[in-house]
Amino acid sequence: MTKAISAIDREALRRAWPQERLERVSQDLEGRPPQEVLAWAFKEFSPRITLACSFGGISGMALLDMAVKINPAVRVFYLDTDYLFPETYQLRDEAIRRYGIRPEGFKSLLTTKEQAQKHGEALWGRDPDLCCQLRKVEPNGRAMASEEAWIAGLRRDQGETRKSVGIVEWDSQFQLVKINPLATWTEAQVWDYIIKNQVPYNTLHDRGYPSLGCYPCTKAVAPGADSRSGRWVGFEKTECGIHTSGSPEAEKAS
User: Among 85, 193, 224, 226, which one is least packed by beta carbons within 10 Å?
Assistant: First the structure.
């Protein structure tokens, strides 16, 4: 097992990657094909780099396909919230067969029963921020405890909260380097890659679910509607908390 990076190591990692260096490297990689970004990332950070793939979104699947072709030994993880769609687990299993990967699922420290006992039934319908903190944000932190960098599928066209995403940036919440190879791509470009390379994708996309999360908090959307409008319907919430600079939900989870 890889030795976890200590707090001192995290501080050293931050010193090694000051903001000016991150901005310079990000600018150098701006406009480069995602495969070049991935190749740079693996060269710079291997073996302490991991790829997040939810087996829900098309960006994660496109990155998985690209990454395995460059580095077949890439470490892949996903967040098993215990509320994933059956189709999501089916895609995970298909990806295992196709790519020969061994994705590691990270669960909440609380079972669904324990969460209900502590916070009440259907927490997602009353306090989705806390539910996401318990079942996504905290497990995501554990998934990256031994890593210096992680690869995410963020794109600037995914909404206002993501329009300034950099190719390479510092993740102040999890204290490591975050790499977004698809930041400049559009949804159409991702679909084009998926189709041309025959990449498996979640079949719910064909049934009106352009953005997938947990089944209690994800609804189908009308054709042409914002791709994330089916997430957390009835709440102002637009992000689960993983891709935010801070974690205000953490205070409520303590």
Answer: 224
Res 114 pLDDT > 50: yes
Q: Would you kindly state where each structural domain of the chain is located, as residue ranges?
A: 7-207
Mean pLDDT of the chain: 88
Identify residue 2 by its one-letter amino acid code: T
Please provide residue 84's backbone torsions phi and psi, each rounded to the nearest 5 degrees: -80, 150
3-state SS, residue 83? coil
Backbone φ and ψ for 105, nearest 5 degrees, come out as -90, 130
Q: Spell out a b/e string for 174-204, using b for 16 or more CB atoms within 10 Å of the CB, else e.
A: bbbbbbbbbbbbeeeebeebbeeeebbbbeb
CATH of span 7-207: 3.40.50.620
**Can you tell me the mean pLDDT for 137-163?**
90
Do residues 38 and 66 lie in contact, with contact meaning Cβ atoms separated by under 8 Å?
yes
Give the model's pLDDT for residue 8. 47
d(CA 230, CA 154): 18
Q: How far apart are CA 167 and CA 181, in angstroms?
A: 6
Inter-residue contact 103 to 77 (CB < 8 Å): yes
Q: What is the pLDDT of residues 241-250, one digit of tens each?
A: 677 654 333 3
pTM of the model: 0.88
Give the tens place of pLDDT for each residue, 54-106: 999 999 999 999 999 999 999 999 999 999 999 999 999 999 999 999 999 99
Q: What are 179's strand-pairing partners?
A: 151, 168
Q: With 0-12 CB in 10 A as exposed, 13-18 as middle and 19+ as buried, what is 64?
A: buried
Which residues belong to the active site?
240
Distance CA 184, CA 153 (A): 11
